[in-house]
Write a structure and sequence with these properties.
This protein is an alpha+beta fold. It contains 1 helix and 3 strands; from the N terminus they run βββα. The chain has a 3-stranded antiparallel beta sheet.
Length: 62
């Protein structure tokens, strides 16, 4: 369905004072990684990772 929001999977792993966040588009298998400070909120981390994922999907023609 065009215009419908895509499902996105998120994985969070704390490594010291940082959190590694993976955002995955299950439909295409495209994955991006960001590293954020552990003091950032989950919403902030998701927002940044999702923006990066959307950019990558656009660049790859999805």
């Amino acid at each position: 369905m065009s215009g419908a929001p895509r499902e996105t999977l998120f994985e969070f792993r704390q490594v010291g004072q940082q959190v590694r966040v993976a955002a995955i588009d299950p439909e295409t298998g495209v994955e991006v990684i960001i590293v954020a400070p552990a003091t950032a909120t989950e919403t902030q981390m998701k927002s940044i990772a999702l923006a990066k994922l959307k950019r990558k999907l656009e660049q790859e023609g999805y």
